[in-house]
Amino acid sequence: MANQGFERPLRVVQTNLQIKDTTKINPVELARQIDELGGNALVFNVGGIYAWYDTDVDHHTKNPYLPEDTNLLEEVIEECHDRDIEFIGRVDFSKANDDVYAHKPEWFARTPDGDAKTIGAERPGDWPILRFTCLNSAYRKDGVALPVIEEIISSFDVDGIFYNAPHYITCHCDTCKRKYEDHYGEPLPDETVKFHEDWAEQCVRDNMEPRYRFIKDLDPDVEMVLYYDHNGDDLPEHAAMSDLVCTESQNILSLGHSDLPERWKPAQTMKIGNTVEDGPDPIGIIHSSPGMDWRHTGLPPAEYEYWLSQIPANKGTIWHSLTGIPDTIVDDRLLEVVRDVNHKTEQIDPLMEDATSVAETVLLWDDSEEAHALFNGLIQQQFPFDLLLREQAELDRFREYDLVVVPADWEFDPQFVDDLCRFVDSGGRLLVEGGLPDDADRLFELLGVADNPDLGEDLVASYSRLEGTENPLQRGMEDTDLLPHRGPVAYCDPADGAETLLTLVPQWSPLEAVGKPPERASLHVSHTDIPMAIAGSTGRTLYLPFRLSSLISEYQIDDHYRLLENAIDHLLGDRRTVQATSKQGLQLTPFETENGYLLHLVNGTGDRPLKTTTPVSDIDVELSLEEGLDVTGVRSAFSGERLDFLQDDSQVSFTVPSVAVWEAIHVHCESRS
């Protein structure tokens, strides 16, 4: 990454502008309103689909509602800078006006049948048709995009360029056909599913890498902001061709209650963004609306505040995406939420600027259902953890942590296995779930497995039995020996020196008979020696030959969450940095700061979408300190309220009296003299 972004933490406000509202924009008032909302950066339309200035570039459609007697864009920029607000110009070359299509039809994306791809053709009202441009066409290069960017940077004092919609749009134009055949030596298939898997990203890279270099050559002080996919695909490549990376965590309530996004989605996207080594804080774009089809209304305030708060609490840069300017927004509640979250973010900016994660656990991330479920289990149990993407999963990154968690179906190539072995040999801890590859002798030895596991059938009406006394996996479940189980098991034997902590109670009935005559309800087999949890001989590995992640995801039974918590506690021992009273719906994210620690607590308790704020109370926290530190005070970074604390050598404990939505606790430390 060539640059590290802006020199100060940003609180970004984006005004998604309708061109027909252009005449309602008063530059002086707009800058005042952004300032009053707590924003120190404005994202404002500049060019692409429409030029918001008098452009000299052919086929760059000018906004027809621009006033003739003033230079609106220049005035907005000047007013922002007068209030110390960064100005980020939004460009979007993914679509163009139908008039452009009439002159340059070869620039536009095509279906396999050769038809141009349109957007909004059925939209009511007096609007021109927009058509998707081809990512590989001249429109995105010398035809329009490059001269427009040069015109903007040379004509206006912009601080950054936000390159909206850089993604690949499926296209079967002749340009794409030629490029595909040149690249792969075969024709471009009609069916998207038959494309080479790297085709879309290759097109993005071929387009955006030159754009980034072009911008930096024009003015190295202009920062470029680029999207990454929220699941982390190709994030390192995107980070290398921009100064800042951002993603959208849309809370699309209009999908319906049964399809709500995961409640911790903003936290997830920021943890993914923070996997980039030595990069600036990732940007989290949060739309104020409950869906783009309802974009002129706001999210319920309680839900909106919870969603927004996860961004700064996970070391992300907050970016508010609003429909219109404050004068055209009819829901004043959302503006109040924006103002409140920005105010809190500003309060913690000095503490978070150089903060580093103190998570001792890292979850390997491949965007699978299993990875999502383990993320859910970890965040719901208030475990501090980070993520590593597949291409980042290597020894040097493992050594930044005490524990590596590997979800089911992860690809165990020889180098990866070697890195895991070396990590554990050097004192690291390892948790693995699910099946294992065949003939992976080093992996079997590492995990305490005697031979190749044999994957069995999908079990129902089965259980895991907690074995022995003082079983570390039984903490908090001392009054039961059985945990519900469903799904396949990788049948295996423990190696010499390994310990079996869970065993399988096999299926005692088919589903069609489980509720039938009660006399048939006894267990056919109550005990087996089939392992469901194997602790390796070193005490540093734990292997679960089943998918605990699937049980957490599908059933969300407390015993499965507890089992995951106990498994990690067993592996970490006294290495766990922070422990807090378990509260479902509460997120805990700790950071080390220049003068101590900052602990973020984000509360999303309640049925979603949240209708009201439900505070959680009396959260007991224990924090392990770096050696040689004394705590001089514990306080709320927002209210300044001081909390009583007790320090016992390298551990401090205190109670957070209440968390409404977002609280940040600053533990101030000094070195012992």
Task: Give an account of the 3D structure.
- The chain is built from 16 helices and 31 strands.
- Strands 14-13-15-16-23-22-21-18-19 form a nine-stranded mixed beta sheet, with helices on both faces. The chain has an eight-stranded parallel β-barrel with strand order 1-2-3-7-8-9-10-11, surrounded by six helices. It has a five-stranded antiparallel beta sheet with strand order 12-25-26-31-28, covered by helices on one side.
- Helix 9 runs parallel beside helix 10.
- The two termini are 40 Å apart.
| Global outline | globular
Q: What gap, in angstroms, lies between the N and C termini?
A: 40 Å
Which consecutive residue ranges, at least 5 long each, have pLDDT under 50?
Answer: none
Level of helix content?
25-40%
Main beta sheet, described?
9 strands, mixed
Oligomeric category:
single chain
Short characterization:
The chain is α/β, with parallel strands linked by helices and 673 residues long.
Layout: helices, strands, pairs:
Blueprint: E1 11-16, H1 27-36, E2 41-48, H2 72-82, E3 86-92, E4 95-97, H3 98-103, E5 118-119, E6 130-132, H4 145-155, E7 160-164, H5 174-184, H6 199-218, E8 223-227, H7 235-240, E9 244-248, H8 265-273, E10 283-287, H9 301-313, E11 317-323, H10 332-352, E12 356-357, E13 361-365, H11 369-380, E14 385-389, H12 395-398, E15 403-406, H13 414-425, E16 429-433, H14 441-447, E17 454-455, E18 459-466, E19 482-487, E20 490-491, E21 499-505, E22 531-535, E23 541-544, H15 548-555, H16 558-572, E24 578-580, E25 586-593, E26 596-603, E27 616-624, E28 629-636, E29 645-648, E30 651-659, E31 662-671
Parallel strand pairs: 1-2, 1-11, 2-3, 3-7, 7-8, 8-9, 9-10, 10-11, 13-14, 13-15, 15-16, 16-23
Antiparallel strand pairs: 4-6, 5-6, 12-25, 17-20, 18-19, 18-21, 21-22, 22-23, 24-27, 25-26, 26-31, 27-30, 28-31, 29-30
Helix pairs in contact: 1-2, 4-6, 8-9, 9-10, 11-15
